[in-house]
Structures are given as C-alpha cells and as structure tokens.
Amino acid sequence: MLLGITVIVFLIMSLIPGDPATAILGAYATPENVEKLNRDLGLDRPMVERYFIWLGNMLQGDFGRSFSLNRPVIDEVAERFSATLVLAGTSFVLCALFGIAAGVVSAVRQYGLADRLITFAVLIGISVPSFFLGMIMILFFAVRLRWFPVSGMYAIYGGGDLADLLHHLVMPAVALAAVAAGVVARLSRSAMLEVLRQDYIRTARAKGLRERRVIFGHALRSAMVSIIPVLGLQAGFVLSGAVYIETVFQWPGVGRMLVDAILKRDLMLVQGGVVFVAAAYVLFNIAVDVAQALLDPRIKT
Amino acid sequence: MTFRHPTRRGFLASTMSSLAALAAAGAMPRRARAATPPGVLVVGQIAEPKALDPAAVTAVNDFRILVNLYEGLTRYKPGTLEVAPGLATDWTISDDGTVYTFTLREGVRFHDGTPFDAEAVKFNFDRMLDESHPYHDTGPFPLAFFFGSVAKTEALDPRTVRFTLNEPYAPFLSNLAYPTGLIVSPEAVKRHGKEFGRNPVGTGPFRFVEWRSNEAVVIERNPDYWGEKAGTEAVIFRPITDANTRVAEMLAGGIDLMVEVPPTSLAQFRGGGFSIVEQAGPHLWFLILNCKEGPFADKRVRQAANYAINKEAIVNDVLEGTATVAAGPIPPAFNWAYNDALEPYPYDPDKARALIEEAGAAGAKLVFYVTEGGSGMLDPVPMGTAIQADLEAVGFDVEIKTFEWNTFLGQVNPGLEGKADMAEMAWMTNDPDTLPYLALRTEAWPDKGGFNSGYYSNPKVDELLEKARTSTDQAERARLYKEMQVIVHDDAPWVFVANWKQNAVTSDRVKNFRLEPSFLLHLASVVKE
Amino acid sequence: MTAFLQRLARNRLAAAGGAMLALIVLVALAVPLLPLQDPNATATAERFARPLSEGHLLGTDHLGRDLLSRLAHGTRLSLAMGFAAALIAAVLGSVLGIVAGFLGGRVDNVIMRGVDMLMGFPYVLLALAIVAALGPGLVNALIAVAAVNVPFFARNIRGVTVALAGREFVDAARLSGMGNLRIMAVEILPNVLPVIVIALTTTTGWMILETAGLSFLGLGSQPPQADLGSMLGEARAALISHPHVAVVPGVMIFLVVMSINLFGDGVRDALDPRLGAGALTRPLPATVVDRPAPPPLREPDPPALLAIDDLRTEFRLGRRVLPAVDGVSLSLGRGEAVGLVGESGSGKSVTALSVMRLVASPPGVIAGGAVRLDGEEVIGAPFEVLRALRGRRVAYVFQDPQATLHPLYRIGDQLAEAIRAHQPMGARAARVRALELLRDVRMPRPEDRIDDYPHQLSGGQRQRVGIAMALANNPDVIIADEPTTALDVTVQAQILALLERLRRERGLSILFITHDFGVVAQLCERLAVMYAGRIVEEGPTAEVLAAPAHPYTRRLIACVPEPGAGRRRLEAIPGLPPRLDALPPGCAFAPRCHRARPDCGAGDIPLRRAGARAVRCLHPETTP
Questions:
Q1: Which residue numbers delimit the ABC transmembrane type-1 domain (chain C) (predicted)?
Q2: Which pTM does this prediction carry?
Q3: What is the pLDDT of residues A110-124, one digit of tens each?
Q4: Do A142 and A10 share a structural domain?
Q5: ipTM for the assembly
Q6: What ranges make up the beta strands (E) of chain A?
C-alpha cells in the first residue's frame, strides 16, 4: 500500500505543470537557465527512471535530498513529523475525550439543557473552518489577553522545556480538535442513544447497577464499538486539518511542509513526507483494528 | 436527585480537569513573558530560509539574513542604489569595459578566523562559474548567470583581484553588490561541503550562531568586525509564513520587527507603540500584454488598457498607499536612470473607450492570467480583480485564470501566445538594465531564452538597450535609458501599474532602523532599548 | 413516503433546519430576480464599509463590492458546488462501494486497497495536488473536493453492501438467474439508498466548508466570482482590521451547514426503519412516574409478598397516549408462582417491567397505582431505594438471552457484577460465587464456560446464565418475562424444570409472563389473563384451564397444542388485538368475540370475583 502511494505521488507530481527549477529561479526562469539547473539537480532523467532510483535508495534508508531546503529529506521529515505527532496526537486525544464526553452527556441528558448546548456547540464546531477558529483564538487569547503565545512550538528565547511546549500547544491543539470533536460528539451521541435502547442495558439496570456503571461500563463500552472506527477516520481528518493549523500557528509540522513542498515541486520532500504520513496512518489504523478486536470479542475469528 | 445527573460528575470533571491542567501548565507562570529580551532583536520573516549560502539562494527573504552575515566587494550606498566600496576599497575599469581590477580591504577576517584575500575572492567566483571547480558541487547556483560575462578571475596578489569579462557589461559592479556576489569563507566551504548552507561563514557585522529548523535563525554581534560593531547583541529571524499570524505576533510583542506588512493591517500599527517604516525600491508591478496576437496587437488597444485601469485606486485603496503609480518600465528608485519627465497614463475611461472604438476592439474577449501570490506580486488577486472590473467597464470581456506562483511562471515565461492576452508580473532588480534587457528586447522573446513573454519588438529599443549595457559611463547610460523609457511608454507593451514601497513595522523599542531601496535588511546599526 | 414526511415534520429541529435550508435555497434560486447590486462592481474608495452603511446593508469587501449581493450570489454558487460535489462523490463512491461489497474477492481487494491508499494521503494535500495538476477553476476545485470524498462513500457503502450481499433476497435473486449487474441495480441499490442519502446530507455542508479551506490555500474559484469559501478566504487578509468581511460569509456558512445537518439528522431518523415514532430516544434509569397519590394500602388476604394495585402505565407519544396497562391489580404470595398470560401487546410485559420501573421512558409513564413489596410502596420510592431492590429482592429473567446479556463481557464478569452490585465482596470471591451459581443452574462444565462470551454459548446455556444472574442475590421474587419463548421445545422443558426446582428449593416467588398456557400449566398455581391492558380473568390454574370463563381465555387455550393429545384443531383467534389508542367502549374483546352482544359495548365492565376466580365478562362461557 505504501508503494502504491509512492507511485500515486510520483504520477500526480509528474502531472503538475512547472518544475523545481522554475520554482527556484522564479522570475529568472528562462528555458536556458531552467534546463541547466534541472541538469544540476539531476531532474533531466525520465520520471520512471527517477522513480526507481528513488525507490532503491529509500529501501536502503536514503530518502534523498530536498533541493528546496538543501538538506537530507529524512532529517527534515523526521523533525517535522515529530512536531506534527505532538500536535495531532494531542488534538486527537482532546477530540476523542471531549467528543465522546460531549456525546455521552448529550445522549444521557437527551433534550435537556446540556444536550442543547452541546448540540449547538458541536454544530458551530463542524461549521467553522479551523483556520478561522485559529485566527480568532490568536486574536483573543494571544493578542488581547496574552495568555498564550501567538505561534511557534517553543519560546524563541529561553524555554524549551515541557511546560513551554504545552504553553505553545494549547491553542493549536484545541483549534485542531474542535472540528473533529464535533464529528466524534455527534457520532457518540447517536451511538449511545442506539445502545441505551438495547435490552442488555435494561438487564444491567434490572441487576440494580449504579447508573454510572450502566452508562460507562455497559453503554459506553458497546458504543465504543461503533465510535472507534470513526476515531480512525478522524485521525485522517486531524492530519489534514493540521495543514491549516500549522500554517496559522506557525507550527513546524509536516502538513505545512508538504504544502510548501508541493508548491515548490520538491518531489523528494513530498515523497518522503507522504511515505511517513501514510505509514503513520496505516499503523494507526492497525492500532484501531486491534483496539476494536480487543473490545469486541465477536470480531476475533 | 443524584440519579438525574449520572454523568456530569464523572465525565465533565475528568475532561475539564485535563484541559484545565493543560492550560494551567502553560498559561499561569508565564503571563508576563510576551516581550522579547533587550539587546536581542527578533525579526519576523515571511518564510524559512532555503540556505544561508549567498550563491545558492534566490529569495529576498533569504537575502535579508545574508547581508548581515556576509559582505560583497561592493555594496549599495545607504539609502540609494548607487554602488559604493565594500570589501574592495577601490577599483579600476579598462577603457573597453572588460577588465575590472579591485583593491581589497586590509585586515579583514572571516568569522572562522581565516583571512579575506584575493584567493578567497577567486575561490568564490570560480566555485560559482567553473563547472570543473572541486566545490562547484556545493551548488546549484541558480543566479550564477549574473556573472555569466566573467571569463576569468585572477588573484594578482593578496590585495588585488582582477576580473576579465568576455564583453563589456555595465551592471557588473551593481551585481557585485547584489547578494549573489557576497563573499563566503573558502575554508568553511571546504569543511562543510554541501552543508555550508547551514553553516554560513562570512565577514559581516554578525556571525552565525544556530539555525533551528522552522523555528529560528540566530546570529550574534561579530566582536572582531573590521568596521563599526553591530548595535544589538543578537538577531533572531523567525519564519512566520502566514501574514495574519505575523501581524498577531507583532501585536502581541513576540517579534520586534516585521517586514512585508499586509496593507490592510497597517492601520493596526498606526500609533500605540509601533512605528511604520516605508521605502520605495526598484520594483515594478505591470501587466504583460500580448503584442503578437489578439486585440493587444494594436498599439491603440494597449494604450486604451493603460488609460482604462484606475491605478490611483489600486495603489491607494487596494494597496492602502503602500505603492505609487508607475509611469514606465524603469522604477523611480533608479534615480539616475529614471526619466522624471514621464507622466503615468491618467485614468481616463472615456479616452480608453474612444481608442478601443477606433481600433474596432469593442467587446473583445480577453484572457487574463493572475497569480495567487509570489515574490513582489503584492496582492495579485485583489489587484487583478480590480483591473478586471476596470477593463470590463470600458467594454472588454475579461476572463481571469488564477495560478499558483510556480505554475503561473511555467505558463507565462514560455510566452502568452495562444493562451492569454495579458498576465500580471512584477520584478525587483538591482540595476536599471536588468528588466528591460531581459523582457523588452526582440532578442529576449521566450523562444530565444528571454522574458519578453508579450513579444514586444521595437528595433530602436533594442539598439538603445544594447548600447546602454556596454557603456561604462553612467551619464551616457542614463541618457539612453531615458530615451528608451519614452518610446516604451508610448508603445505600451505593458500596463505600468505600481512601484511598491517596501514597508516594515518595528516596536518603538527599536531605534535606528531604516529600510534600503535595495530591499535588503541591514541591521548592523539597529539598536534595541 | 407520507409516513416518512410525517416523521420528518414531527421532528421540530429537523423541520426548522429544513425550513431554513428551503429558505436559503429559494433565495439562492431567486437571486437573478432580486434587486441586488452587481456583485463584481468594484468601488475601491468605498472598501470595508461597515454593515448597515448607506447603500450597503451588509457593508462592502476589500474592493468595495457590495457584500449582500456577493453573499447572495456566493451562497447560490456554493450550494450548487456543494451539492454537485457531494453528488459526484456519492455516485462514484457508491458504485465502487457496491461493486466491491457485492462482488467481494479480488475485485473488493483491489478497490478497497485503492480506497485505503487515497485515505492514507491527507485529503487536503490530495485536493491541492489535484488542483495543481488540473489547473485552476471552479470545476477543477469541484472535482478535487469530490474526488477526496469518494473513499468515504466507498467505504461506507461497501460495509452496508457486504451485509446485504449475504441476505436471502439476494440469494433468491441470484437463483432466479438475475445477472450481477441487475442484482446490484435492483436489489442492492434500493437498500443502500438511505445510507447514501444520509452520507450525502452530512457531506454537503462539509464540502462547502472545504472550499473555504482550499481558498485558504489559494485554490478557490476564479475571481471575481463569489463563493462562500473564497469570500471567507479573501477576507482573511483583513481579518484583524475588518472582521465583518469574514464574519458575513462565515455566518452564512454556519447557517447553511447547520440547517443541512439538522435536516440531515431528521432525514436519517425518519428513514431509519427501526424508529416507529420520531427520533431516537434513550430510556431513563427508571420509568417516569406521573400519578395522583398512590391508592391507599388495602390489606390483602392472604398477605401478599408483591402486590400490584390498580397499576396504570401509559406510553406517551407526542399527543397520543396509549394505555398499555390499565388498572391491573395482582398479588403474589411468598413461594407462589403466578402466570400472567396474554397475546403480545396485551400489556403483560409492561406490567412486569413496571414493577421495578424498568419500562423504557420516554415514552413510558407510570400514571397511577402502586406496587408494594412486603407492604412497602416501590413506585414512589427514591431511585437509590429502588436500585437497591432491583436484583436484590426482585430479579428479572428476560425473554431473549442473546439480546439481554451484554455481548462484550464474559458471562463470569456479568455474574460477578450482579453479585457485587449488592454484596460487597472481592473479585475472587465473586468469581467463586459466580461459579456456584452456574452450577446451581446446571450449566455444563461451568469452569470452562465462565470465561466465555455470550455469543459462544447456546441459547439454552445463555438462558441458564440469565437465570443464574437473577439468582445472584437470592431474591424473593423472580419476574420471568417469557423466559422460554426463544428456545427449542426440549430446552424449554429443561429451563422450566430448572425454574420449578429452584422455586421449590429456595421458596422463590415467581411471576411468570407468557402467552403459552402449556407453560403456565406446568409451573403456576394461579394465573391471570390479560387483554388490552386489563386483566380479564384470574383464578387457580387447574380451574381456569378446565373451565375458562372468559371467551378470550377459552380461545387462547384452544391455541395451545397439547403434547400427546394427538392432532387437535388449532384455532386461531379471528381479528387482531385492538389498537390501544382506539379502544372500543366496554369490552375490548367484543369485536373479536363470538359471544358478543350489544350490551358488551355499552360501558365499563368490572372484574367480578367469585371465590378464587374472577372474570371481566357480561356473558361468560361458564359461571365460575
């Protein structure tokens, strides 16, 4: 599957007009200059040949060198990727936690005040573009109140410890989690409503269990069976949303890097980044499947 | 009634507390931390630099760091685009204009302690130009063609270096002042090879400290600088790609200085602890018209386009006064070559309609290439939209096609023939020669390797430009350029729209800051209180 | 279809969303007719005019264009784009999903691999790359947004199709010689259509939003054309200084997305065949009680362990009120087994569940009467008191052990949980006790079974677990709600024997809910027959069986095949049980009764007692 993705990337990148030399030279990109520079960059060989060279190198752990950043792809991607993991991972945890919590509260208190408030908040969450939300948060919490720094991952002077990271992480993580949390909340709510009507919930209540145990032990556990696959999908959304959030909050992550790399036609960097992201996605989905199987004994074959 | 609130305690409590913990962990102890430390200047850049090797980069964004680390043989006299001595104290030019001999400044050392001498200069130019040079592979050097006329470089003695050109080339001295001509330490190149771009060593007033990818480039005062020492202990360049975020950082005190302030945000900084700095530079924003085919093959229609577009509205309203109306192909910043007598085409839709009527081009359909953004392009989409509305108002039917910058260049540079009638373009150059020579001559049509994408051709203009390029007498060159401007103004191969005034905002703790017409960012004299 | 529309209209939120959406769509359609300014006319001197300024109701944007006009045109375009993109994605995704799900095997593998691959690629980058490759323009942006959504549709639809492909009607179609293509079009498609519609409504809003994201990255529509996304994207540059330019399209996007989502939720609920009435609701922890003061305690004779007194339970569905249990009184002595018999819908199960307030609520409401356990009123007791009684003094055994056991917990854990809910005890001790319980109910090889999940057990074993769970806290009363209905005849007999044995050994009281007189005859001393929410006959089992007084009872008994009695004519009762919201006056059974006379429908008929027996009939079969 990863191989397939690299082929797709190569194909798409070869379909995109414009080449790296144009990107570097900008206004100075005469055909002559472009040709010379492409030769210097080793881009004058046929696409297929370059693909196999790249593939061969990658299998040996060499992801090539980014011409636009003038450094080995693996260094750049590894740095950027860990930044994205911190951001997306936190967001993912937040969105899962808040989404499920909101969904459960909203389902259990169906038609109550909490349900209405949460439903409304969720609707706002899923209908506000995340870059917009991010910008508003910056204006309010960073510029007006000065609670949080505007952008970046660490303080530019001093800092660098965990508290510093958290301090920088709060706003982008929340902004990124908002949309996904909305989706998860909606789904959790309907999954909980569905489960709460099941006969085994009545059984649990007939046993005289405490209501908390009924909701969390019995209902939520069953609802998770349908929530978890959606969490898997949300991981993809969070990664994509990271592109916007990383731009707005100047987070040094892989999403923004990939956009830049596509715009600069930096094939090696796009390839390296996409392979990492796709691998993470695949791993995550395997984890989701495992979690699913652990949760639901009926899946085991 | 506990059973009616079965969930509130368990869930909300746990999730709320986790967020609160996250918030508290960061927010509380650092609330006062917003301001940057004294003596350290934090500059908001528009992007992460590509490399800190002057020969390898092309972006103004990177130049802004480089000119503080490195110096060239010549430099621009502060506040002008005139060439002044840099690492070379003086020079002589042979009468035929092909041999330049420079005397180098004494007692200059690179940051790594190695001496700056004629061999070092020779190393720099050979590395860039000689494909068999052992360190040519530290490239590629995309702007090496600036020095394409250099046939050979010789170190006559440690203090003297001689360049021999294969033809007279007037812009040579100003190209040496351009960042591509900045001198790097040969020893450092040898030591770091391809990684030199991340370990820069020059002779400038600041020396390199560290480059934290996507976070900051830090440079500090060079205590051994040959000239006046820098006014700040250190400068931190932060890449902040999103303009809104940059503005927000500036407002929040996270940076002391930002460049390329979006026009609509300038109002935020008027008064209240900030100062706005502006400086006109050698920039021209224009529309390439397709002179080869379609309605713009007729000179009257091209002039009509110049009359039809309300340039005052564009520079004052769309660009909020961050630009001035352009009159001709050479920006006024090249004051010695600029023709003051030239007046911009006035906004006169009636005259435009009359000319269009006369040429029988009423209702003509035009395809207009617009870019999403790009170096020097200012606000290309709103500007293009305003231009489109103006042209529609005089009876054209204009269809906009937008492209992301690199695709746009890929479309425009090979020529507009068969694709479009007009395209946006902007150039920032260091010599009055560059733009007209590369984009107005017949010999510069795209199929001949130039940027004359609209196929303008006027033998008189060709002749004037060739002459001006080979003359080493500035007065003579000025005369030739002025004549050329009049002709081109009348032929109207382009719509001359705007000359950008570069802007920057500083917090009022920053003193002695000035923008240069060269668009370079010299920070040595800046002080922060 | 009308039922669908009715259900949709009944959901107030969905109706509001639908109305708002309709309004927006109408206005969008009418845009060319409205007296709006030219959306593309620039007047840069008047840029960033505030809302409500002269000549510009919503103000102007960065080029001085009228925001109201651009908003109207932009909404029109965005809606069209959103719907079109969603439709394209839905069609392509559904085709892929159906083909993959239906054909399975290698085709499925190849398609789903491709889909997974696309999903592994962050969608923004995919859209970015597609637009970069295809060139700019609205159509290409539309293609990009649609393309990145194809995988989501394909995945969803495939899942549904796989489930359908194994169903009988598909096999039948295959056997009848239908081609694959035809089966997919005729049999599968109609069945996945609701899922497609639901996915469509939820993605449309998202698509509109996503165009805003693309224009953030500079890939929107071509200027000067307005769509909501690029309006927002263009306004971003002035977000700090002139927020209203961004807020106007932002609010519109919110309204569109919200109305689409509300409407979509309504459509989903209305399409969902499982929901008879209105939206999905969840039952509260205990049935709502809304009754006048409980009836005074009447000392029964002999003193009862569990006394149900004039119990009334209703289902309140919107304005309709269905009296499911209408004044039922029944008592259960210590060690006694009483059968409560009736057709489905007669109210017998609701009566049983009302005892511990387990009727799903909403819609269930206990509207009157009392339940007393050892003389203590239960219905009005605080929840914690009630909870302490559930499972400890009154335990339930439910009908379908497949549905009533939690599918994700091992049976041992479920048993242990039941024990520990009322008896503080460590996990290990609870497990020992659980094992004991399994032995008590004669579970074969309990040591092996205790760690099984419900789905690993047979139906009879599951019901044994259900009974073991009911016994966990040595309750006084077991309410068995059709415990054997879902089981084979032989297993049924074993379970009945088990219950009988437990009752004898432990002195349990059992309230046995069933429709089967054979079962009652085997287990119960006394029985009560229910019809349309009321008890119509009551008495000792043997007597009633021998000489049923109520015509309904007689008919019910006639329905039971008696083992060993040879071929006997089974009489079905003609007609259907009455609708509870349209009960005839007088005897509810009269319309189906062969003995009915005019006076049967005249007025309320009391339950007349004579000794141990009672009957609610003016013209009984026999006079007890």
A1: 75-264
A2: 0.79
A3: 777 888 888 788 877
A4: no
A5: 0.77
A6: 65-66, 71-72
